[in-house]
Amino acid sequence: VKALGRNDFQFFDPEMQSSAQERLEIEKGLHQALDNNEFELWFQPQLCSDDTIFAAEALIRWKHPQKGIILPGSFINIAEDSGQIVEIGNWVLKQALEQLASWKQRGLPKTFKKLAINISPVQFMQVNFVEDFLKLLNEVKLPGQMIELEITENMLLNNFEIASNKMKILKRRGISFAIDDFGTGYSSLKYLRHLPLDVLKIDRSFVTGLRSSSDQAAIVEVIIATADRLDLMIIAEGVETLNERSALMELGCHCFQGYLFSKPLPAEVFFSKLTASSAV
Ligand code: C2E
Ligand code: CA
Ligand code: CA
Ligand code: CA
């Protein structure tokens, strides 16, 4: 028997062992992945109702030499538990900023405002996070205004004091903050209003199958009212159908990210699409 939490016990069975084995394999693989340059950033457009791409979210992919492309859902958790997320997250930041700087040099459409980058709580809580990030920003000579950091609500509330101090420092340099997966955690207005947030992302679970008249719509309505109270811009995640889009618009959400518009794309494909879609 293995003790998990306070009074939460679980028995080892062969299946669990194999999954522990798998985790170990991924952990080992992640080590080499950084050294062998197996990570890649892909980019998913964010659009408003006028159909211009105003931003993009950077999403990591692992090009495994044997297994092909591995999605972050299969390794980010493991990397967080093992601590490898710090190194991986630093790679993501550097790669994202360098990519953006190079696009900026080649010419970005005026309508394209920023790149959003996912930050793991473990990474954000590192003592040097702010210092290292600002150093990187200086090196690539990008204005902070072009960067948005996506963080989850639980992270913010579990480390409220430290998180909000870090956010305030970055905020002064123009960096904006999006609260990711909103509605899946336990955030309350009371706390959120003390944080320098800019964007609220409605989690995909509330968007899938949304019609303007349903219980689900009532939830989205509350989320949108919360965003309005906090003066936050709203982006809906995981928009796959025209019905979902029109329901969202009826409820007051006008910016979207999802397969309806585009899946995440490799850097060059994204850049072509971006520059083709609007005048530079
Ligand atoms: P997330 O931040 O919520 O990112 C959105 C996820 O939804 C992405 O999955 C994206 O491909 C997917 N998605 C977007 N539109 C649709 C849609 O219309 N339908 C469906 N079914 N899915 C859609 P992805 O790329 O597999 O990433 C999964 C999660 O892994 C992310 O969720 C994020 O939490 C984490 N992640 C990804 N990249 C990074 C990274 O660079 N650093 C960290 N710390 N976490 C990352
Ligand atoms: Ca995200
Ligand atoms: Ca999300
Ligand atoms: Ca999500």
Automatic annotation (TrEMBL):
Domain EAL: from-to ranges: 23-278
Superkingdom assignment: Bacteria
Protein name according to UniProt: EAL domain-containing protein
Organism: Amphritea balenae
Top-level taxonomy: Bacteria, Pseudomonadati, Pseudomonadota, Gammaproteobacteria, Oceanospirillales
